[in-house]
C-alpha cells in the first residue's frame, strides 16, 4: 500500500516537469504588438447580449417567432394581391339608361356595333343599344329562332339566325342603316307540309 505523502510528491514532481522554461513577458512598447489581433477582436456590450432562456420558454419563444413569421408572410401576400388588384385597369361600368320590357321571352341575344339582336318565337327584332328603341322586326309563322349571331363588317352587319322548328333552317340577313334584307335561307322547304317533324 502506498502512503499519501508519496502520491503528493509524485504530483508535485509532475507539475515541475511540465513547466518548460521561463514565461515571456511582452515588451512595453506598442510597436511590438501584433496588428492582426486587433482586427479579430470585437468589443461586446454585456448589456446587449441575449440571455439563454430555460427550455420551456425557449420552445414558446420559437413558436411565437414562427407564428409571427407566418403571419407576416400572409400579410405581405395579401398586400401584394391588393396592390396587383389596384394596379389592374378597372372596366368602365355604365348604369342602365332605361328599362325595356319585351313582349315575349327571348331565346337568344347578340350585340354588334350599336345594336342588340334578340331572337325568339316568330323571328327576331333589332334594338338600338343606347335608347332601347325597336328599329326592325323580322317575323314569320312557325319560326322559333334558337340562335343568333351578328358579325360587324364596318358600316354593315351580317346576321345569321338558326331556326330549329322541325328542321334546322339557317337564314342569312344583311343589315344596313336603312333596312334589313334576307339574303339566303338554307334548308328551307317552301311547303310547310313537306317539313319533317
Form type = rod-shaped
Q: Helicity range of the residues?
A: 25-40%
What class, by secondary structure content?
alpha+beta
Low-confidence stretches: 10-14
Q: Within the largest sheet, what's the order of strands? A: 1-2-3-4-5-6
Structural notes for this entry:
Strands 1-2-3-4-5-6 form a six-stranded antiparallel beta sheet, with no helix packed on it. The longest helix has 33 residues. It is α+β, with helices and mostly antiparallel strands and 197 residues long. It is built from three helices and six strands. It is rod-shaped.
Labels describing this entry:
31% strand, six-stranded antiparallel sheet, alpha+beta, 3 helices, 197 residues
Describe the protein's topology:
Blueprint: H1 4-18, H2 36-40, H3 55-87, E1 108-112, E2 115-128, E3 134-152, E4 157-163, E5 169-176, E6 179-186
Antiparallel strand pairs: 1-2, 2-3, 3-4, 4-5, 5-6
Question: What would a concise description of this structure say?
Answer:
By secondary structure, the protein is of the alpha+beta class. The protein has helices at 4-18, 36-40, 55-87; strands spanning 108-112, 115-128, 134-152, 157-163, 169-176, 179-186.
